[in-house]
Amino acid sequence: MPDVVFSVDQDKSMRDQAVPGHNRWHPDIPVVTVVRPGQEFRVECRDWTDAQLHNDDSADDVRDVDLDVTHMLSGPIGVEGAEPGDLLVVDILDLGPTAQTGSAPGQGWGYTGIFARDNGGGFLTEQFPDAYKAVWDFHGQQATSRHLPGVRYTGITHPGLIGTAPSADLLARWNRREQALIDTDPGRVPPYALPPTVSGALAGQATGADAERIAAEGARTVPARENGGNQDIKNLSRGSRIFFPVFVPGAKLSVGDLHFSQGDGEITFCGAIEMGGFIDLHVDLVKDGMAKFGVTTNPLFMPGNVEPRYSEFLSFSGVSVDRDTDTNHYMDATTAYRNACRNAIAYLEAWGYTGEQAYLLLGSAPIEGRISGIVDIPNACCTLYLPTAIFDFDVRPTAAGPVVADRGQCAVTS
Amino acid sequence: MPDVVFSVDQDKSMRDQAVPGHNRWHPDIPVVTVVRPGQEFRVECRDWTDAQLHNDDSADDVRDVDLDVTHMLSGPIGVEGAEPGDLLVVDILDLGPTAQTGSAPGQGWGYTGIFARDNGGGFLTEQFPDAYKAVWDFHGQQATSRHLPGVRYTGITHPGLIGTAPSADLLARWNRREQALIDTDPGRVPPYALPPTVSGALAGQATGADAERIAAEGARTVPARENGGNQDIKNLSRGSRIFFPVFVPGAKLSVGDLHFSQGDGEITFCGAIEMGGFIDLHVDLVKDGMAKFGVTTNPLFMPGNVEPRYSEFLSFSGVSVDRDTDTNHYMDATTAYRNACRNAIAYLEAWGYTGEQAYLLLGSAPIEGRISGIVDIPNACCTLYLPTAIFDFDVRPTAAGPVVADRGQCAVTS
Amino acid sequence: MPDVVFSVDQDKSMRDQAVPGHNRWHPDIPVVTVVRPGQEFRVECRDWTDAQLHNDDSADDVRDVDLDVTHMLSGPIGVEGAEPGDLLVVDILDLGPTAQTGSAPGQGWGYTGIFARDNGGGFLTEQFPDAYKAVWDFHGQQATSRHLPGVRYTGITHPGLIGTAPSADLLARWNRREQALIDTDPGRVPPYALPPTVSGALAGQATGADAERIAAEGARTVPARENGGNQDIKNLSRGSRIFFPVFVPGAKLSVGDLHFSQGDGEITFCGAIEMGGFIDLHVDLVKDGMAKFGVTTNPLFMPGNVEPRYSEFLSFSGVSVDRDTDTNHYMDATTAYRNACRNAIAYLEAWGYTGEQAYLLLGSAPIEGRISGIVDIPNACCTLYLPTAIFDFDVRPTAAGPVVADRGQCAVTS
Amino acid sequence: MPDVVFSVDQDKSMRDQAVPGHNRWHPDIPVVTVVRPGQEFRVECRDWTDAQLHNDDSADDVRDVDLDVTHMLSGPIGVEGAEPGDLLVVDILDLGPTAQTGSAPGQGWGYTGIFARDNGGGFLTEQFPDAYKAVWDFHGQQATSRHLPGVRYTGITHPGLIGTAPSADLLARWNRREQALIDTDPGRVPPYALPPTVSGALAGQATGADAERIAAEGARTVPARENGGNQDIKNLSRGSRIFFPVFVPGAKLSVGDLHFSQGDGEITFCGAIEMGGFIDLHVDLVKDGMAKFGVTTNPLFMPGNVEPRYSEFLSFSGVSVDRDTDTNHYMDATTAYRNACRNAIAYLEAWGYTGEQAYLLLGSAPIEGRISGIVDIPNACCTLYLPTAIFDFDVRPTAAGPVVADRGQCAVTS
């Protein structure tokens, strides 16, 4: 086990840790430590909400979650010798939930949430405007949920969020272009984007005026951007190697939002099985790598070679037509994937799951979301691959029709 | 080898076959034969352009292709007992290029094209407005191209286009909603969609007024729709089972646009390695299956279990920001995947490929296109997985930088 | 399709072909053609028995088969420039059954046989001394058998037998060491080895005294030896590359005994799904490769990357104890694997298969036979991995016990 | 993390633990705890030698190891309700090295040993009669060795040894049949088998006369037998489910000999990367399962679905001919696999590894050992699949010949 360079006491909020982390992107958040190229080290993490959600049977905590404090990150970690223009090479050696059981997410359990339309939303928020939750129990590499009987996943554990710090210029670009988007419909619910928000901001070890400036300017952590960030790539698991653009001296790497499992798209917004835990990393540098390899706008990565091996899938397709109005959208992969998801939900409902159970399942199970056709005007075609082996019953179509059963219900709001 | 129920002489156009096929979707195209549930049969196919492209080093044929005659399909094949509301179960037993070598695509060779912005376009048509071509030689299950030295793919052969006939009502919906989209910008180049087009229409064995009506009303074959159609799903290969909605008595199954290999998205529009050849099918029915399984808007399928096994990938990500203008689009997976593609092209250019070579490569190679994050406002995040084993040199990033070499050029226009 | 350099009329015996093949290994069998390094070419093959077995429901043909005429090989093919000490690089581009249906094995069907103890024997010949047969129907890449209901395999097609010609010295060594083994128990049934046998010998295009000498001296084709030969490696499928030692000028490559599918060990002796058909090859040379790479006693190969993808297995283990007498053998992997096979048969019998059906299934299905422990004195431990997905019922153990059903019977002798 | 039911202080020998384990198989060793069907629990383990080997550069510890104290097991664990004739279902939920770094194997490092011919031996002990060692450093799921530069494995972690207690009758059979084998050549070095040995015996919590009797009668742990035991199955990793025969009331499950990685056969005898650590298990029962499923002589198991994904292999074959004397052995898979191993070693020597380095590599790397042909008289054919991706250089054969380099040396004896 490598040395811990960022430690977390899961009984305390991130704000109250001996060395606190941060929940905004800003070049001026001080580094918590400096590692050298070639070094292996461990980082401990809180779950993305800083443990606002509980191991119970009510979704009230999802409905009422304070999203201003998300995502709680560990870091930033400085890398000796890293300069703008370099590529920071990060190997994910290991990661997992916490060793101890307890009441914080990751302590033997995790959760998946459907966020309410009024507080976070999600990919199918028009179809599912209310809050729901599923709690998962960990069994080594596998998880089960009392709220989703009949399924058992082997986790492709990964960090939902990992990235380097933006430069001041890049941060300014983010804020400008996202505000422009917000300005196209400022009252939209859910909003188009989140501007810098002082409420709930945590600036690591910065204090005083520095902390206030970081809170006022710091980019929200929710989207993926040029620095990586909240990419939610389900295959960024153990054994993966990532090449991050470096925008500031020292690179300033941060990580958090660990997932026990997730489907492509993380469609319920909080679709992964969320947890706190640890991640072991190794870092190195490719000097001047951004120009050398043409990696200028987003990280490049190589997934690891250890993943659950599935060989049979049910694949649902969707095209870019709004089904409710029969309106054709031009090459719109988002609409196409939404339809593929809705088709998968309809299929699972035929077997007795509720729609919200099916939606939670598709967020957290190791499904693949593929852009199958993106050139055949006017319809993009996306496909969703659902592995059949995660079910403890035979979920394949037969001439006899589906076996309908009472499959319970997930946690709902009071 | 099962009985041939639709045979093709590759020396003749589809129009001149003893029993011609069709290139429009319409419920009234007469069936060429009727098969029973449980039957296995072979269908022979022309390539999608009806052999307008040649095994040479000029892309003039791509530039000048007549798209009104595409996609040339074999069928429709009636299935005994199939009624609207059923699911037609189609197993792909085998498929491949023609047995004989010759001058038609599929006769020992195939092609990939970048279509010109003015005649077809493609996913990156703004970046690549001109026509290009790569010709591939088949070596059993693998293909190489003199226009793309350094790569060799094992083909995941599949039909780009397979589907059932629409009902008259469904056809009318297609025509209405696509015309509505066209009407939003009628002069756009490339167009938003293609309306029914009498020029070039082929209505199978229909004649006289019937043929004229089919030409006037028949939906173009280019997009994927409720009936399957041009889904361009690269994994719909040997061993796959598809469950098609049935909209008309007899189901009326048609198939064509065979691909030797394709990447997710088929991004150059004619991105697959295109070929004529044969496909062996087995059919069955799930009576009333659409309602039983909730499969009402698109086919469901189960991919086969025989695919090239790759274990190492370079993964490029992109987010939904227009890079040229730094404009943020909201949860736009199409833009995100476009950026992932551009990032992959930039990477390959760093090794000496031209941009158009890289673009052709990404269309035809067995890349995976994933919707990784679709909920983290405002940025969708898509990823493109490029298998490293298709290259005959080590294409992974190293501290030493890429090995730049003269990697030739694809076919260009005169 | 590459040029055919060895053609076979499946309506005629190998002996009656325009250019006959051979069924003995000898350096003096004349080449049928000479190919150059870099060339691709097709070879057509009879099944290994030269079509002595039939598509019927009796195993009399297995019981009465004339083994003196086996294995019928196509070739030898000379390779320009190949000299002793080189490595001959052979790529398997494609292979499969014949295109036409008919009465010869490979013409739409194949067979698996349990050979009688008195005529061929097999791995479990003491337990199964009589002849049995299963006939398989091909459905594209898959096969089913009326004699083995409930299973369906995707074929890992491969040549059971492929090799280069021995030098005169090497041939003499083979004959000497195998005769020495026979001499330890000359009357054994089945015999320890087969000496050169004039009866049934076919020496290709050799005639007169040459043919007589070849028949008198030529090594039987049944075992694997330094030249490759009857290795029966189930993964030597499409996409594989083999590096053969070259022992004579021109290498003299021969091939035959095509298999639609086989399990590791081919345990019933004729355990594969046997067929005639075609194989497409590409050849090249590594000059002086035997010394360069230390490949002096057996071929080296690299399996292809296209195989059925299975993810769940039942694994049976066995140790090197004779179960019938409770006698311990020292590190005897053969005994250990025999026990693993018997354990698998007992398991399948619990579900309703007859022992001979189970034995036929394990010979032909894509099982893996592993040497798990070979150092833990005194017991070797071998394991047999049976993929569960080849069954159309759930074959996994449950607390409820196996579902016993009438699963028919294979072909038996009259 | 489940409750620990058997804990180990890695600073103390197994003999000095608060609750000691055992190193002999005997029905009368008292259970350390009783678990119920459905329970999940953690067991901590010493490495198999009880930490006799060290993280240094000398193989003297291997040469001088006391094998009378091996294999140190944790347990036995009683299972409520288990009766003879049942199948004990054991799920491996997780396993790994210890969390802390330190001087005991498993504390951040492990080792592979070639045992001396005079003290343990191994599969190629005639070729490698002296002791050697390689020490491995763990990096999350991967390991590297200063003694084997150029390779890096992802561990398929597994218990080398896990099994249920024999009944008194079964134990008597073991002792009888193994003594009979020893008696065929009592002075053989290495011996054919190991009889019960009082020296070094540890009988768990048994004391006095009980302990003496157990030491005098208890079977040595080295071989695999009907109860499972030292099967050394490299794929018995996380996610595996094992069905053990139950021979005594309570089943009495014991486990130890954890491996970070191992190749099929574990050919150097101590061929795995050996470590202490933990294993998390879940147990259940199939009442009367031995008769129901015909699982009477050895455990049945289902491997997990999470393993390193390799797609390219070098495959070495061997046949059952003694190469040194050119003597033919009849269907001898052990000899065939030995030749395959020697062929692989010769190949690696051509690249600059020493023979002993190559031998250590083949013991510990995730190679596959296959019984390819076991019926083609007189030669068994075995194959060894070596994944190419574990090397950091291109190890495939080319026309240019191997790249010879100084690849260091493993630890040798003084």
UniProtKB/TrEMBL annotation, chains A, B, C, D:
Domain of life: Bacteria
EC code: 3.5.1.49
Top-rank EC class of the record's enzyme: hydrolase
Gene3D superfamilies named among the record's database cross-references: Acetamidase/Formamidase-like domains
Gene Ontology molecular function: formamidase activity
Alphabetical keyword list: Hydrolase
Pfam families in alphabetical order: FmdA_AmdA
UniProt xrefs under PANTHER family: FORMAMIDASE C869.04-RELATED
Name of the featured protein: Formamidase
Upper taxonomic lineage: Bacteria, Bacillati, Actinomycetota, Actinomycetes, Pseudonocardiales
